Amino acid sequence: MGRSNNTISRKAVSRRDFTAMAALLGGMSLAGPASAQSLGNILGSAKKVAEASSYSDAEMRVFFDQMSADMDSKNPVAGPDDPYGQRLAALSSGLENYDGLDLDIKAYLVSDVNAFAMANGTIRIFAGLMDQFTDDEVRYVIGHEIGHVQREHTKKRMQGALQREAALSVAGTADSKVNAIAGSELGKFFGDVIGAQHSQKHERQADDYALEFMQDKGYDAQACVTALEKLEAMSGGSGGGLAAWTATHPSPKARAKRMRKKID
Ligand SMILES: [Zn+2]
Predict the structure, then answer these.
(1) d(CA 155, CA 104)
(2) Which end of the chain is more exposed for a tag (fewer CB within 10 A), N or C?
(3) Distance from the CA of 193 to the center of ligand 1, in angstroms?
(4) Active-site pick, 51, 59, 137, 145
């Protein structure tokens, strides 16, 4: 039994919380006061913010693990009996470990056209995207998101945000002040790590990785192009949040053209 767009829950993730398509097109896009608070708890209790520059990979993984769990608790994750869950499980079969990464790939039953990845290998693909994309185009998205993980884009962003937080905390010497700054700055902090756009350079790197992924797995590499062309077509219409996105970001058209050139 299939689900139409209309039956997919939107209540868990609204446009206010997610910038439509930002994850796939230019960056990751999720935010939420509760998530930010969770991160704040870690920052406040596990380690002083002033020591942020010394966070290890293992410690940062704790942050991402908590953010992933928090996001999954707030969004409807497609289970093994759900058609979206079954389709994505089939498309991502064998990718539990890929290129040295432990990956956790699941679908959210949310109608936005979106996807995101975190440095701990969490990859979430939205049902709204799966409705629009062929199997190979979804595989391109998976490859693109693996690329963001493999090239450590979110990890670098986390490091940068932690260091900016550390710089802020210099102004406040008392521990309570540090915690207060951490809390009051968390919205911005969380947005820096998760909600901000990836740079075009990072998008190109993720696209390049996706192309290698498609070729490595023997999938149709043309799907990289057609997926981006679909995004371009969607963003060109009256796509609500998409219109706002395209007002401030380069269109996927150039990325599609670039990918086509690499394939031909
Ligand atoms: Zn991307």
Answers:
(1) 17
(2) N
(3) 14
(4) 145
> Is the pLDDT assigned to residue 186 strictly greater than 70?
no
Residue 145 among the catalytic residues: yes
User: What's the pLDDT score for residue 43?
Assistant: 53
Is the per-residue pLDDT at 13 higher than 70? no
Strand 115-117 to 104-108 pairing: unpaired
Cα(149)–Cα(215) distance, integer angstroms = 18
CA–centroid distance, residue 117 to ligand 1 (Å): 9
24 CA from centroid of ligand 1 (Å): 4
223: three-class secondary structure by DSSP? helix
Model confidence pLDDT, tens digit, residues 46-100: 444 445 456 778 877 877 887 788 888 888 999 999 999 999 999 999 999 999 9
Given a cut of 80, is residue 9 above it in pLDDT? no
Distance between Cα 220 and ligand 1 center (Å):
19
CA distances from 223 to 27, 177, 211, 214 (A): 20, 51, 9, 9
